[in-house]
Q: What sequence folds into this?
């Protein structure tokens, strides 16, 4: 991949201004409920906001700006405005409460905020408690006091703005780790990093075209969502369709309504959407990307059967900015995440950091044009060792360089001396028709050290009783080594997940 960048680089100029300058300003860039913006429209909106930020709100390059909104056009325009002005975008999950927003503001030293009026109460409570936050404006509101609304200022601002000539190594975004445990960490990413991820996975693995329409469910505050729904379509002059609410049902509706061709979502969402396979077959959908959690072989098969489409799996992380191991749809291997994305190197290492032979379980280590840089956080040395990023995942590489996910390193269960990967047992359970969702953990046990325990959400119409537990236990024994079967089974109505849809196994260890 082309990974040489000039010393002066602003990724907003590359992703947005370039299209207008090169005559593609009238191309469709963005759709949402009742809205269509061309590249020129998005540029004019971003420029107006950039003028408001710099001339009215006192923003100077290097300032951190909190962006807080559901996935909508003003959120995207605000992101580009901040980056064009040389600021640093700090996007927050739309459902965060004042206390969590306060933590982000402290860690990231946020001075400005642009937020959706729908989240005003929470942001106002945050501002009252955080004097660091000097200037806040709300968009998409009606009846806001004049001193708070963004749009009246935009209406008076110029649609022209000279994008700040930042250095390629200036930070343009701070991404917060979704954190299944502990205090959140801010990861710093440069203008160069944004262009690097656009040059690697999308070009070599996804291979979308300018007339593709991208859609997805992850919030734009999650770098999976920002890349898949905004950066990657714009890097090739394609378009995005934004959904403020993107549960499986809304996502299917959105795919149909906007003629989306490329979708980004998580494995659980594919499992539910598969029930609408017939309807999806009538749409233009052609490329389906899964990330955030391991994609089970059964989910891959379910989706293929329902829609005829092979899912493109990929593992990425907030620390690495986007996907670094993946496969093209025609090179998928059930149960494997894929191979190192061109531009990246990956290997499996032991506790001493030595590479282990193919077929051996160890820790995943990756290296490439992007990598972990925590902002003021001593946990940096847990992620980066000798130039390699340790993601915290246990993997096996096969003889062909395909990487097979095992578990988060802390989700490996050791029972009577056997190593058991929680996701492998989950995969076995999910293959049973009665199982909608499940989560497996290691329960402390005086005799065996740990025992395998499964939390199971049943599909409608199945009865949660001792017979069902026995049926599922026997089913697992019949498909994987019997010592891996769940000795304890508990039926639950739902599983604990993060805002990014990740299973929080730790919350099952100690139910709140
Ligand atoms: C897990 C996967 C197996 C894995 C992300 C794509 O998920 C993203 O970032 P996070 O920082 O979490 C990173 C961790 O999530 N994971 C992600 N994808 C997969 N495990 N198979 C997968 N395909 O434990 C990883 O270390 O929230 C994903 C792009 C950008 C992202 N930020």
A:
């Amino acid at each position: 991949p082309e990974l040489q960048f000039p010393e002066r680089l602003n990724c907003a100029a590359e992703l947005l201004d370039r299209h207008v300058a090169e005559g593609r300003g009238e191309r469709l860039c963005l759709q949402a409920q009742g809205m269509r913006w061309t590249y020129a429209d998005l540029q004019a909106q971003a420029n107006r906001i950039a003028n408001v930020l710099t001339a009215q709100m006192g923003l100077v390059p290097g300032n951190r700006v909190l962006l807080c909104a559901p996935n909508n056009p003003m959120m995207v325009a605000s992101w580009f405005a901040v980056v064009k002005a040389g600021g640093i975008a700090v996007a927050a999950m739309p459902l965060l409460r004042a206390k969590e927003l306060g933590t982000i503001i402290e860690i990231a030293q946020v001075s400005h905020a642009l937020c959706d009026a729908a989240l005003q109460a929470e942001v106002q409570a945050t501002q009252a408690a955080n004097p660091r936050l000097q200037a806040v404006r709300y968009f998409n509101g009606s009846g806001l006091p004049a001193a708070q609304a963004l749009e009246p200022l935009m209406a008076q601002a110029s649609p022209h703005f000279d994008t700040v000539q930042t250095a390629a190594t200036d930070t343009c975004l701070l991404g917060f780790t979704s954190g299944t445990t502990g205090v959140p960490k801010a990861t710093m990413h440069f203008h160069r990093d944004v262009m690097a991820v656009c040059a690697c996975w999308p070009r070599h693995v996804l291979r979308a075209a300018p007339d593709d329409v991208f859609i997805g469910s992850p919030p734009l505050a999650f770098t999976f969502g920002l890349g898949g729904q905004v950066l990657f379509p714009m890097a090739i002059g394609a378009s995005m369709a934004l959904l403020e609410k993107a549960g499986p049902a809304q996502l299917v509706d959105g795919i149909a309504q906007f003629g989306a061709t490329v979708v980004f979502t998580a494995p659980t969402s594919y499992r539910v959407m598969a029930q609408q396979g017939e309807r999806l077959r009538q749409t233009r959908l052609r490329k389906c990307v899964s990330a955030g959690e391991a994609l089970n072989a059964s989910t891959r098969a379910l989706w293929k059967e329902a829609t005829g489409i092979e899912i493109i799996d990929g593992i990425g992380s907030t620390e690495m900015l986007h996907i670094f191991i993946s496969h093209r749809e025609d090179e998928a291997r059930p149960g494997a995440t894929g191979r190192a994305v061109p531009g990246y190197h990956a290997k499996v290492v032991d506790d001493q950091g030595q590479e282990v032979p193919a077929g051996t379980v160890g820790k995943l280590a990756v290296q490439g044009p992007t990598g972990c840089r925590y902002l003021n956080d001593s946990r940096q040395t847990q992620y980066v060792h000798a130039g390699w990023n340790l993601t915290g995942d246990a993997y096996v590489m096969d003889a062909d360089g395909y990487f097979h996910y095992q578990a988060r390193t802390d989700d490996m269960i050791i029972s009577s001396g056997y190593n058991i990967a929680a996701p492998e047992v989950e995969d076995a359970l999910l293959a049973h028709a009665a199982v909608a969702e499940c989560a497996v953990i290691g329960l402390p046990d005086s005799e065996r050290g740990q025992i395998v325990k499964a939390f199971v959400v049943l599909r409608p119409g199945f009865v949660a009783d001792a017979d069902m537990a026995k049926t599922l236990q026997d089913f697992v024994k019949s498909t994987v080594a019997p010592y891996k079967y769940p000795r304890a089974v508990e039926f639950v109505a739902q599983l604990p997940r993060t805002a990014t849809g990740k299973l929080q196994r730790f919350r099952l260890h100690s139910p709140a």
